[in-house]
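Anyone opening a protein record will find just a pair of labelled lines. The record below illustrates this layout.
***
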Amino acid sequence: MGRMTGGEAVVHSLAAEGVDVVFGLPGVQIMSIYDAFHHNPDIKIVTTRHEQTAAYMADGYARVTGKPGVALVAPGPGVQNASAALGTAYASSSPVLLLTGQVKQSEIGKDYGSLHEINDQLDLVRPVTKWCRRVRDMGEIPAAFQEAMLQMKSGRPRPVEIEIPPDILDGSGELQAVEAKTEKPGSTDETAVKRAASLLKKSKKPFIWAGGGVLCADASKELTLLAEVSGAPVATTPEGKGAIPEDHVLSLGSCYYGHGASSWAVHQADVILAVGTRMYEQMKGLNRPQSPQKLIQLDVDAKVIGSRYPAEIGIVSDARTGLRALLKEIGTDKLPVRWTEEELNGLRVKQQQWLESHASPQCTMIKSIQEQLSDDAVIISGVNNVAYWSYFSYVVRKPRSYITPSYFATLGFSFPTALGAKVGAPDRAVVSLTGDGGFMYAIPDLATAVQHNINVVVIVFVDNAFGASKSDQIDRYGGRLVGTDLHNPGFADVARLFGTYAEKVKPDKVGEALKKALSQQAPAVIEVQIPTWVPPFQIPPRLD
């Protein structure tokens, strides 16, 4: 590989792993890496205004492309700022590499008060990474990046971290090439697959739960085929939206906190196949598996299987490999019809009636948004009321087209993640559904959108409150409001100052405003004033 600096070794290693974009914010300990980027124009550098945004952008890029996203930040406060976004990527099983600096090797753990020092920075990232490593010698750099990529591509994809002290980055030396590593294909328990296939064949009312693991494994085709062969309807978690086209005759859409068409269906099932889902917060009320139902759980993470509900059969496998094995065992001839189209349509009608009684204004807005978007548009669902209700009412027809913060539920997630998704999918419309509280976390990165011509559309729903918490105070605490009301600027006015297109509209004009914003070919902000509504997770799930 020849003689180079540590910074050049980092950039060389990134390029060797196919990285074409890095989201970052510079700092003194990582300037050797930035200098090396100057000599490698094949890697695009997107500079953000906050380290949290850099990591969110890496996450959005990863989820829409399926490729690892890379964030580069300074040590200490840079890592701390990025950690919330890293936690979101961890919760969402997203392949994100956080590349960070360090203090000098001789100062690590000494508590000298060095610039940006944290006594043991690795302890900060361990809870939200699958793997992390401190590079202690320049010769370790290529192998460290190779291992980081392998960790993200094998098993359950989750964030990883590499940190490199500045004296290594600034130093130089002869670098040796490392032998390429390849992921070893996993084996699927054939006995478990045969037992699962037999249960599905004999089932009178099979049912499929699909989670984000289906999307991580790019297994939507296999899931849809298995549903068609077995005649089993499919419900997804919010993370799994798009795992099967939601206008498919066997799709029952998404479930959230026990709600959804699934709540009228699951208790009728005798066999449940759960693929790529933890089966946690969604499985409330009538969505809970209950004896004598038989649960088949297929997941790449062995720890998930049986962790919430007893599994009759566990299959440790990524979704695509496991579903292909089941299809091979069951065959491609369709099994006898166990759920009629009339039954499934009846379930959808019940859900629609429920939505009309609880969230008619929200769903009307969501419908007007959907009418302006093609099937390959990407929705970034934030932590706000309209986004929550979109779990039920926005119809996703393609995988990797709907992104959520998963159980981490991070305020401030939607807008910066949308920026990264747009970088990864520049030819697709990308729309952020954000609330006023969440948008204020990253509003300075409107400058990032303008500087790098990242043409996202941000729809900001403004109720001048942390709406879910305010609703909670009204419902459970006698309307005693403390600390949940907000003072906001005029978001459209602020956005124009950054140089974006912006418009303030009433709820019934959101669709028209979105159409106009998409035609601008520029970053855009749509401000929408709404009341504080009740979110779905504050509505008790059905129990009878």
Summary: The CA atoms of residues 48 and 448 lie 6 Å apart. DSSP finds 19 helices and 20 strands in the chain. The two ends are 67 Å apart (CA to CA).
